[in-house]
Design brief:
Elements lengths: L1 E6 L7 H15 L4 E7 L6 H19 L20 H6 L7 H4 L3
Parallel strand pairs: 1-2
Length: 105
Amino acid sequence: MEIVTLNIKSEFPPADVAVANLLIEIERLANTEVGAIKVIHSYGSHGVGGAIKREVHESLKLLKHNKKIVDFIPGEKFGAFAKENEYITKNFPQLVLDSDLQNYN
């Protein structure tokens, strides 16, 4: 299965616009060969970037609860030895080489 990287902060949008863009892309990719989306959403835990991060996490939790997505792994838990990553590295072995996996990012 394919993995798509989606950068929703590239133009520094307000958090609500960034989340809306993410939701549009998730819907667009729902019936494709894409099995995972790597979301680049923030550049810090405070300020504008932090707001995007918080709202993205809340939106993804809701999508998971409503069974619109299978799961999501926050960047701070995306690490080579994190238990949460067993499924993702088994089903998407190309992520083992992802530089962010080694950095818990």
